[in-house]
Write a structure and sequence with these properties.
Number of strands: 12
Helix content: 40-55%
Largest sheet: 12 strands, mixed
Strand content: 15-25%
Length: 359
């Protein structure tokens, strides 16, 4: 009789093989089909805006500012037909998990709520005409989120970007491989203060888990993890900062208890599992294989939700930054990003592709 333990192990390995591979043809095909349906719906004028060359420099740039401050490439939601908007959402829902899709669409909807918020302040006499005009010039609106394709979904190398105020999703496809970063999310306000949406926190879990982890640390560990400086006004590796986090600082996960390490991993999964499950498992497996013990957790600022604070998770293969950089001393404006080292915009998979194929 065959060894039952060996059979069980072989069966488990067989079942996990699709998830442990670096390629995900099924997942890619679903996104590709949604993208093709959208591209086929475009008229000639829309194609001029939405379809760019793969080597267009806009592909490897991102920004989180309102479009009133920084123009975007692509076609915006406002210039899509209703049927095209439905197809746009099919691309998002094929690419993201339910939590990722909810975060992305909620960030878009927050722009409409922001306008309502400032309109209410204006009618209450707390803003004058000049203040309101300046705010309106930022062009906050769910209509001002852009979709751009770089290359066509039928190409061996292509990508798409969904971007606007506080959102930048960047997917790059090379044959059956896929790069998914930089992946930026943000919210203003972090907690909506008034009206029927009072209490809404689109990125509440990212904040709560960071605060939970810093409070789980002992006083000595907190001292080791916390840098004594002002909270950054934005994530350190912001779109226009030109900065990179090269040096590790903070406390290494190998110096944490199992409970502390578990919460650290919850934070990572909160970012990575914004992706559809099949792809998220692959990306999370890369991080685990590179070594959870090698990840550094660093903190700047207060250990409270309502005050300015910042944290970073710096691992061998990835970087996560979270910054609550609200006005004055009140933290109510979140910027957060997940970056894959060496493979943003498909840098690594493209290198392999160009070496193996003639161009």
């Amino acid at each position: 009789m065959p060894n039952s333990k060996l059979l069980t192990a072989a069966l488990i390995l067989f079942l996990l093989l699709p998830f442990l591979s670096n390629s995900q043809p099924g997942y890619n095909a679903e996104i590709k089909q949604a993208a093709i349906s959208f591209v086929n719906s475009l008229n000639n004028m829309q194609k001029q805006a939405a379809l760019l060359a793969f080597n267009d420099t806009a592909r490897v740039k991102w920004n989180n500012l309102p479009v009133g401050l920084r123009a975007r490439a692509g076609i915006n939601v406002g210039n899509m037909t209703e049927e095209q908007r439905k197809l746009f959402h099919r691309i998002l829902s094929a690419s993201l998990s339910s939590q990722g899709y909810l975060k992305a669409t909620s960030i878009m909807q927050l722009d409409a709520l922001l306008n309502q918020y400032y309109d209410s302040l204006y009618y209450q006499g707390e803003l004058n005409d000049e203040n309101l005009k300046g705010i309106k010039s930022l062009q906050w609106s769910p209509r001002n989120f852009y979709l751009a394709f770089f290359g066509l979904p039928s190409d061996s190398a292509w990508g798409y970007k969904v971007e606007g105020h506080h959102l930048s999703i960047n997917f790059t496809f090379v044959n059956d491989k896929l790069s998914v970063t930089p992946f930026f999310v943000g919210t203003d306000p972090a907690e909506f203060p008034i009206m029927s949406y009072a209490g809404l926190r689109v990125l509440g879990e990212e904040e709560d888990l960071g605060i939970k982890l810093i409070h789980l640390l002992s006083p000595a560990q907190q001292k080791q993890s916390t840098m004594n400086k002002d909270v950054p006004k934005d994530i350190i590796t912001g779109a226009e900062s030109g900065k990179r986090l090269i040096d590790n600082w903070g406390i290494r996960a190998s110096e944490m208890t199992k409970e502390q390490q578990a919460v650290l991993q919850y934070i990572i999964r909160e970012f990575v599992f914004n992706l559809e499950y099949e792809k998220a498992v692959i990306e999370y497996d890369k991080i685990v294989k590179a070594g959870i013990d090698k990840i550094y957790f660093g903190w700047i600022g207060a250990y409270e939700e309502s005050k300015l604070h910042y944290y970073v998770l710096n691992g061998p293969t990835f970087l996560i930054e979270f910054d609550n950089c609200g006005p004055a001393a009140h933290g109510n404006h979140i910027h957060a990003i997940w970056r894959e080292k060496g493979n943003e915009y498909g840098e690594d998979v493209l290198k392999e592709h160009y070496l193996s194929e003639k161009h």
